[in-house]
Amino acid sequence: MHLTIPQNYDPKLSVRDTQAAIRYIRETFQDEFGAELQLSRLSAPMFVEQRTGLNDNLNGIEQPVSFTMKDLPDQTIEIVHSLAKWKRVALKRYGFQMHQGLYTNMNAIRKDEDLDNIHSIYVDQWDWEKIISRDERNLTTLKQTVQQIFKVIKHMEHEVWYKFPQAVYHLPDEIHFITSQELLDRYPELTPKERENAICQELGCVFLMQIGDTLTNGQRHDDRAPDYDDWQLNGDILFWYEPLQKALEISSMGIRVDAAAMKRQLKITQQEQRLNLPYHQMILNDELPYTIGGGIGQSRLCMLLLGKAHVGEVQASVWPQAMIDECAKHQIQIL
């Protein structure tokens, strides 16, 4: 069990007031975020057929929850890990045009997650995707989009302060950009997570870019699926989170692969057999739009804005009884 207990923790809000704050944050953020990035809200699946290749493979080792259904006994159905690939297909299927996009509520089960203060087997996030041109597949587009998202998060801080002034957690005023290689050069003696903690504690909020490729020390900063983000044009939004004394990831996002990037990354990860799947064939045949997209953690954002010590205070999931009992001793109110 991995659990951090902040000293003298005060939840500030009762469980019922916390629930009211969660509803306010979720409803307000999605409206402001959709308006800022010109995104329309769509309904999305909770599960997909395995044979389509649409499920997110995450780091490649997590196993999705799967089942068969009575009317399709020969097909394996998987609960999604995320909608990273489904969204790009949806933009084409529903006739979205240049610079238009979508967002949706994504609910997933990641049964292999290591549970701690910020990780749950239940994942809830706003998944979003937007069409861009081939010429916009660059760092300028990526950084401008990150700045837009940061702007909305900062505005939410002020909105929450107005409604729940006793509970709001104050955020830094700007976001900084750094690549995973620059981060290694800066802190060569630290592990990847220690490097994230160090830079976030120093700067407050960073967008850590270019995650997936091998660095000069022969290692990757973190494993990333090879067939949706372009590893040269992706990254994570990380905040220094004082209550837990660590970096808190709010969003993973990036410009999506074109055919060349996908083939290169599948070759690196020795997963070239995936090129035969329907989704990958659509990219190879230039049948899908160029896009940028990502996910923004709903519970993580509520946790950040309300200064909560455990993600279980802002979502209902399943936890070891020992973790629930230890939290209860320190006023951490697991739902």
UniProtKB/TrEMBL annotation:
Naturally occurring in which organism (per UniProt): Lapidilactobacillus gannanensis
Enzyme Commission numbers on file: 6.3.1.1
Family annotation (InterPro entries): aa-tRNA-synth_II (IPR006195), aa-tRNA-synth_II/BPL/LPL (IPR045864), AsnA (IPR004618)
Class of enzymatic activity (EC top level): ligase
Single annotated GO MF: aspartate-ammonia ligase activity
Record keyword Transferase present: no
Lineage top rank: taxon: Bacteria
NCBIfam families: asnA (TIGR00669)
Listed SUPFAM superfamilies: Class II aaRS and biotin synthetases
Keyword vocabulary terms for this entry: Amino-acid biosynthesis, Asparagine biosynthesis, ATP-binding, Cytoplasm, Ligase, Nucleotide-binding
Positions of the Aminoacyl-transfer RNA synthetases class-II family profile domain: 23-320
Main location as per UniProt: cytoplasm
A Pfam entry, by short name: AsnA
Cross-referenced PANTHER family: ASPARTATE--AMMONIA LIGASE
UniProt similarity note: Belongs to the class-II aminoacyl-tRNA synthetase family. AsnA subfamily.
Reaction(s) catalysed (UniProt annotation): L-aspartate + NH4(+) + ATP = L-asparagine + AMP + diphosphate + H(+)
Localization, UniProt: Cytoplasm
Pathway listed: Amino-acid biosynthesis; L-asparagine biosynthesis; L-asparagine from L-aspartate (ammonia route): step 1/1
Official protein name in the record: Aspartate--ammonia ligase
